[in-house]
TrEMBL record:
Keyword Repeat in annotation: yes
Top-rank taxon: Eukaryota
Gene: Efhc1
A GO molecular function held by the record: calcium ion binding
Keyword terms: Cell projection, Cilium, Cytoplasm, Cytoskeleton, Flagellum, Repeat
EF-hand domain: residues covered: 599-634
Statement: the UniProt record of this protein carries the keyword Zinc-finger: no
Protein's UniProt name: EF-hand domain-containing protein 1
GO cellular component, one term: sperm flagellum
Protein source organism: Microtus ochrogaster (Prairie vole)
Pfam families linked: DM10_dom
Record's subunit section: Microtubule inner protein component of sperm flagellar doublet microtubules. Interacts with the C-terminus of CACNA1E. Interacts with alpha-tubulin.
Length: 665
């Protein structure tokens, strides 16, 4: 205490009053921790240890102390649990914001993590044979599988052919008990060179596969070295030669059965029965069994062949090749042929690829065999590779059908149908073309080129139907001309003069233009004019026409513009005052003959009278064309346009009385 007081006074002389109070309160605080300078705090009165156990809801829990002995606060745990969690989860703030927290690792259950992962061990067990003079025990090899997904095990014995012992799954997949307490086998209990007991049988594990070894080593288990699998003494005894003496000269059928068991020769054959009525060429597969020299014939069915799906044509049996003489009258349909009636049986050397053989009255031709059969004939009989014979029937080349010369009746397409079928059908039409070009007609004004003077003034109207490529010619009747007008040519296809009768070339839309020469059945026509629809059609389909045809359109349009130019007032007045009544009547008769198939508009006059309030017999052009459009009057026709022109008077008014006369009866 004296030393403490001296130190306190020295501190008071060197420091201020604020420090004095602190030193008085805690006189030991601030002393150097040197040997001989450590003192116990005389002010402490409690020296107990804090509790680390407690109870919560009736359960004992562990709690971490916050103070040490005597109530001193522990320096390593001065922060609360919330503060510690906050510091643990706090991440530094980066330039572009806090980083994204990594997602927690997904929980993967055991049945997913270890799915299809199996440990395989090779083992054996010894089985006693009490009643046998040749063996006292036998060694049986097994495979032990351990499934990691559910800790189950199974024991499977590989099947050995002709062993005479039920083999396969000895212990089905389940969890196997290790002892009487109830513990089960775990993969930690399995290793090389150990014995395990399963349901009273002791299995010796001698080896495992590579995956099992790597898995055990990854879990820290030291894998024992592999052991050698013991051999079964009776199996080794059977491998030794049984007989020590010479075999008799007679062929041993038992040896043939054991040597050629499951060895079958396969041949592919056909039976050609096309010579008989309703016969056909059918395919078969011939099996020759080497173990007992029997033959089986199987049918090859094709899809939709119309036959019942019988698999066999002949059951497996021995085939006689040569019979005795008295066997011809033998009732074969009642009794089977015995060995006494047969002189020779079919053998393997009788079945050769490329040769025919007769079996029970049917002749089969062998055209191919499988690779095993080729190898057998090469080793047994020294025959080279048997080539495959092509038996597929090649269809003859189609005969080119030649049509007889054209007889001149009807169209060539219609006449050719008589050569294709007994009952001719109408030739196929281009329906799409007919639907697209329905009611589309190109009309042309033409003149007949003839040395006869009376024919020079005759005019004809050509109508070309785009839907069917047919042409009709109509001659408007001219009064007092001495020539009966009307239909000059009905709808038909016109052949060009330079084409042949067998391969005709018909006139198309591109052949009709102003100035073109059209020859129709030895009559030559020259195209003089067209209507506006033809001009629009030629402009929209300019690629189909020649430069000469396009030039004729250009000249026609220029000429029309000149004709539509306003004439001097005196000439127009004179033309209106002196109408040609004779031409008007002729034009009306021509239109009635040309449009006789058109439905007559009986209400045409009444419709015009509705718009003619004054009853003058005239309507303006706008009203006139409106009525014509309502009643479907073909105002684009060249004859109708001429009639409208002749019925038009000054100031754009049209006399509808003369116009109605052309559409009434």
């Amino acid at each position: 205490m004296l030393f403490v007081a001296r130190v306190t006074r020295a501190a008071e002389g060197n420091r201020g009053g604020g420090c004095r109070a602190a030193m008085v309160t805690n006189p030991v605080h601030g002393l150097p921790f040197l040997p001989g300078s450590s003192f116990t705090d005389s002010t402490k009165t409690a020296f107990h240890r804090s509790q680390t156990l407690g109870y919560r809801n009736g359960y004992a829990v562990v709690r971490r102390p916050t103070v040490g002995i005597g109530g001193d606060r522990l320096h390593y745990n001065q922060l609360s649990q919330a503060e510690l969690d906050e510091l643990a989860n706090k991440a530094p703030i980066l330039t572009y914001g806090p980083p994204k927290q990594a997602p927690p690792a997904e929980f993967v259950p055991a049945h997913v993590a270890f799915d299809k992962k199996v440990l395989k061990f090779s083992a054996y067990f010894q089985e006693d044979v009490p009643i046998s003079s040749e063996e006292h025990y036998r060694i049986r090899h097994v495979n032990i599988y351990y499934y990691l997904e559910d800790d189950s095990m199974s024991v499977i014995e590989p099947v050995v052919e002709n062993s005479g012992i039920p083999q396969g799954k000895l212990v089905k997949r389940q969890r196997l008990a290790k002892n009487n307490v109830g513990d089960h086998y775990h993969w930690k209990d399995l290793n090389r060179g150990i014995d395990i007991t399963i349901y009273g049988k002791t299995f010796r594990i001698v080896d495992c596969d590579r995956f099992t070894q790597e898995f055990l080593e990854s879990q820290g288990i030291e894998v024992n070295p592999p052991e050698k699998m013991p051999l079964d003494p009776y199996t080794e005894l059977r491998k030794e030669p049984v007989r020590k003496y010479i075999t008799p000269s007679d062929f041993d059928q038992l040896k043939q059965f054991l040597t050629f068991d499951k060895q079958v020769l396969r041949f592919y054959a056909i039976w050609d029965d096309t010579d008989s009525l309703f016969g056909e060429c059918r395919h078969y597969i011939i099996h020759y069994y080497l173990m007992d020299d029997t033959v089986e014939i199987r049918e090859v069915h094709e899809r939709n062949n119309g036959r019942d799906p019988f698999p066999l044509l002949m059951n497996r049996q021995r085939m006689p090749k040569i019979l005795v003489e008295n066997a011809k009258n033998f009732p074969q349909c009642v009794l089977e042929i015995s060995d006494q009636e047969v002189l020779e049986w079919y053998t393997a050397k009788d079945f050769i690829v490329g040769k025919s053989l007769t079996i029970l009255g049917r002749t089969f031709f062998i055209y191919d065999c499988d690779p095993f059969t080729r190898q057998y004939y090469r080793d047994k009989f020294g025959m080279p590779d048997l080539p495959r014979v092509d038996v597929s029937k090649h269809e003859p080349p189609p005969v080119k059908q030649e049509l007889p010369p054209y007889n001149g009746y009807g169209l060539v397409e219609d006449s050719a149908q008589n050569c294709f079928a007994l009952i001719p059908k109408a030739p196929r039409k281009d329906v799409i073309k007919m639907l697209v070009n329905d009611n589309k007609v190109l009309r042309f004004l033409a003149a007949l080129e003839s040395p006869i003077p009376e024919d020079k003034d005759r005019r004809f109207i050509f109508s070309y139907f785009l839907a069917t490529d047919m042409i009709s010619i109509f001659e408007p009747p001219v009064r007092n001309s001495g020539i009966i007008g009307g239909k000059f040519l009905g709808r038909t296809k016109v052949v060009k003069p330079f084409s042949s009768a067998d391969n005709p070339i018909y006139y198309g839309p591109s052949d009709f233009f102003i100035g073109a020469m059209i020859e129709v059945f030895s009559h030559r026509f020259v195209i003089l004019d067209t209507d506006e629809y033809v001009l629009k059609y030629m402009e929209s389909n300019a690629s189909q026409y020649s430069p000469e045809a396009l030039a004729s359109i250009k000249n026609r349009i220029q000429k029309q513009d000149v004709q539509e130019a306003p004439a001097p007032e005196s000439e127009n007045q004179q033309a209106m005052e002196e109408p040609k009544e004779q031409d008007l009547e002729t034009l009306i008769d021509t239109i009635q003959m040309h449009l006789k198939d058109h439905s007559c508009q009986d209400n045409l006059r009444e419709t015009f009278q509705i718009y003619d309030k004054e009853g003058s017999g005239y309507v303006d052009k706008e009203t006139f064309f409106k009525v014509c459009d309502t009643l479907n009057i073909p105002v684009n026709d060249s004859l109708i346009k001429e009639l409208i022109r002749m019925c038009t008077h000054g100031e754009g008014r049209i006399n509808y009385y003369n116009f109605v006369r052309a559409f009434s009866n």
